[in-house]
Amino acid sequence: MSSPCRRSASLAVLAVLALAACDREEREPRGAPVGESGPGAIAQGTLYAGEPSPPDPRRQEYEGNAYHLAQGKQLYVWFNCGTCHANGGGDIGPPLMDDSWIYGDSLENIFATIVQGRPNGMPSFRNKIPETQIWEIAAYVRSMSGQTPTAASPGRNDSLNAKPAEQRTPKAEPKQSTPGGPQVEGRQ
Amino acid sequence: MTARLPIPSPCSAGRGRDPCGAWEGEGSVIPRNLALTLPRLRRGPLPLPPGAGEGVARSASSRQWPWHRAALVLCLFALTACERVQHGIQSALDPVGQQAGRIAGLWWLFLAVLAAVYAVVLVLLLVAAIRPRRRRRLPPGPAFRPEEPIERRLTRGLTAWAVGTAAIVLTLTGFSYAVDRDILALGHRAELTIEVTAKQWWWQVRYDDPVPNRSFETANEIRLPVGVPVRVVLKAQDVIHSFWVPNLHGKTDLIPGRVNETVIVADREGRYRGQCAEFCGFQHANMALDVVAMPRDQFEAWRESQLAPAVAPSDERSREGQRVFLTSACVMCHTVRGTTAASRVGPDLTHVAARPSIAAGTLPYSKGNLAGWIADPQRIKPGSQMPVVGLSADQLQSVLAYLDGLK
Amino acid sequence: MDVTRVRRTGAVFALALALPAAAPAHAQDAAPAKAVPAASASPPDDGEWAMPAKNYASTRYSELDEINTGTVRDLQVAFTFSTGVDRGQEAAPLVVGNTMYIVTPYPNRLFALDLTQPGAPLKWTFDPKPAASAQGVACCDYVNRGVAFADGRVFMNTLDGQTIAVEAGTGREVWRTKLGDINKGETITMAPLVVKGKVLVGNSGGEFGVRGWLTALDAGTGKIVWKAYNTGPDSDVLIGADYKPFYDKEKGKDLGVTTWPPNAWEIGGGTVWGWISYDPELDLIYHGTANPGPWNPEQRPGDNKWTGGIFARNPDSGQARWFYQVVPHDLYDHDAINELILLDLPVNGTMRKTVVRPERNGYVYVLDRATGEVLSADPYANINSSTGVDLKTGELAMVEAKAPKMGKVVRDICPTAPGSKDWNPSSFSPRTGLLYIPHMNLCMDWQSAEANYIAGTPYIGAEVRMFAGPGGHRGELSAWDPVKRAKAWSVKEDFPLWSGTLSTAGDLVFYGTMEGWFKALDARTGEELWRFKTGSGIIGQPIAYRGPDGREYVAVLSGVGGWAGAVVVGNLDPRDATAAKGFVNAVADLKDKTTKGGTLYVFALPSKR
């Protein structure tokens, strides 16, 4: 065997071997182990006494996981999120695909908004949606404005195709985030 | 479990061997018919028929595996001879409807013809292999000499073989065509229309009626009057599924955005098992449905009972259960007609306690199985859309009392 | 143009259409050629504006003529007033005595302005303090369409489902009655109507799986006198011995139950959020019923009675007299709640007492208001989803290819979900005999999906994307001749028209556009005579009144919003074509044309000094 031939053969073998390093994404239908996620675990503002607390570890668990994001997308429709917020453009509720966030843009803040409801019309889903599914919905909501890794974000729409899929939505950097704060222009 | 059914079932008919063993797993949470699929999810060893298992167990250390694999294959063949397959609730070889009968007839015809062909080929092959090769010295000259008698015989033989093969294929095609035609002809006589929508991983079943408020919905079960052709309108919500009740008919796909139709008729009372026959994801294997063929009057009585809204809870425990149901995650997905629960994500539970099974044929219906299912659906059917709701033990008991009353 | 000649030729034309050639020649002279408002429902104008529709016949016509085709060019602002609420201002101001009453969208503040003083200072404010959460169950912006005045009291509805009586002189609350439950999705946005000492109120929430009703409250005490549901058994719908519909399809026992899948009527919609008219002579009120829920028609096989139709009821008992279902088994969210104008007009040579309704599905319906018989139904807008109404059976013929199907996108359906024309009312001028219909020219793509009922959240099951119809213009004002059954003229507008119209004896038609222009047209030709740019888009209802100084004033609220203006008030994202149930896609450029507002504008001619 000639040496270029041998080189390419060994490269091919290496490439095949490299495949062995690939790991299929974990699908954990039960969700990550549930820890403390009551109001005490969620910061409503962006100002901390001392060093800022680290973000909730679940952020990685849910936002980087295609399975959870896809489940979130499905639940977003099933639990009528989309009938108020449309496919992210908004309707009765504010849009979710843009860069303004009335009650905070972090996964924990969105979780809190869904659980607690908000005074100007956002219903509370407390006890109505299991925690795992709320995390999934919250992660999907962040994917609508391109906040999640594109490799994990949903890549297609099953419906009218009203807008490009989350994977192709440009990231809208959250601006003037005012968690729990007063009215943002034009919002409830 | 079958005692719950108001109709005589083949399981109680006493046929010597128990034909419905899979449905009677009272004690165990996982019925026997799942034994082949569930462990795979757990990455455990594959359970095998008795006899074969030992061989496989040893195979890891022994070098005799080809022999044992052959034994395993033989065992699988032997399975087809089992009465359970021939007289079963999920067997194409035990037809109870005209179409399934024609299909089974066709199957036997194909089997007979093809087995004969196979046998002939094998015999010839064997003869060719065993017969000592006669070495003849060829005279000089061209290799192909058509005038030689042996060549003429060979030509005639091969022509006959080709003509025979063509004739067999064409005849079988003709039979297949005739059977297809017969099967479709039945469609014009359908008296009842059922709309089946496949969802991951269960079946939504809707009985249509010209009077809208005489239509109703159920899940994972189809009941039909014996001898009445029933049109089944097939839809899918998410991915492609396939509707297959082997005892009644062949497969028909359910495709999102498309409406398919099939007609089934059951000539004999009994309960049959339908199964999704197109891989549709995580819990494809546990996407079954019960088809119950019953006498006309019993069917009508059942239909009337299904039309009624859910019975109001009668005792304190059930009332509390209803309250928990309506104020917890249950209400986000399920319908109980007569209450404010009217979501359509999951199966309609208005008469859940009157159904033969839960979780799309995964478990036979019993209060205990229902408890296991609600408490931890992800253990019984991992990946299913039913989440772990996290009810307290007390809440769970109340909800159970309530749901068990929804006959 | 010679008006009388136009009318006469109009009549001849109509008769030629209606009568066979053998018709006696003298029929021409016997039938007056003109439509006139029901006399008992439209008393002579007193210069006030005591109900949003002006009178029980709902003509929205003022007999004042100081501002006319000759003088309108000089029209200028007399005074303005900021409501302090910058959501969609759909209400009509009322003027009674020397006071103007205006109501805002949520939080539904009620203001009384003293017209006797220069600049009309605030006399009093009433703040009903409705529940803030109600904003989450208002389908299409949290609007309010006006208040009613009777016997020294102002009657108002709040978004969270209350009806409140306020003393007109002082702004003091007299009574309040809680009628709706926001946890079921019930709100109230309609303007009440006071008939024979009863306040008529209906609920909103057809997009939330509520059960629609109309109720009558005692104007003195606020107690419920009767309540008629629009789905369910006959006893709930108040269908009894008096009920005599014209068509066989409206006859039968408990159709409000049997034309639905089991129990679906309990969350079936059929709300009453639109307009009510009253004929004192026949002693009947007329009201429409809104769309059935959910939008996805495949989830509710059957005719879905009594949604999408028109009821005539006895105002004292609420008992139904007749019903006509305009859209049986509604496919497109075509609420039948638009204005009902009571006109007497010649049909086939005889004068008939009719009720005229420019319907959401694109047809102008003329019904006999005593019997419910459909006398005519003619398209006034671009329609491709239906082919017409069979006058024998009253059936609307739908186009199968445009019917929504689950799992499929049905493209280019005209008209759209808000219809050729939504709630914003037409006006009728007896001087021209024309109906001035503000409407839209939009089409849509629709995909049905399974709707999940979760109490307090929307129950829709459809994704919609709207866009401009043929011609590219999105709005249109049409002058419709109900006798000729044809358009006299029409004016195209870039944006959909979401404001009402006002016609006056000065032969003018007033209306506003979503960019904020307030316009006056010549009622006979459609020629634009005057325009004024207000601070925000106009979706309100203009009125005309005689001020304490004897001069004529025209008033309108400016402040964009409603379903059409959701893109501005909600600051919605037009990248999503389905935002605001698809309306955003049709008006994505509105954000570049106007912003939110909430200001009253009152116009008058310069005072002669």
From TrEMBL, chain C:
One Pfam family recorded for the sequence: PQQ
Domain of life: Bacteria
Keywords (A to Z) from UniProt: Metal-binding, Oxidoreductase, PQQ, Signal
Pyrrolo-quinoline quinone repeat domain sequence ranges: 49-375, 487-554
Entry keyword annotation includes Metal-binding: yes
Signal peptide: 1-27
InterPro entries named among the record's database cross-references: PQQ_b-propeller_rpt, PQQ_MeOH/EtOH_DH, PQQ_rpt_dom, Quinoprotein_ADH-like_sf
Cofactor(s) in the UniProt record: pyrroloquinoline quinone
Family: Belongs to the bacterial PQQ dehydrogenase family.
NCBIfam families tied to this protein: PQQ_enz_alc_DH
Protein's name according to its UniProt entry: PQQ-dependent dehydrogenase (Methanol/ethanol family)
Organism encoding this protein: Azospirillum rugosum
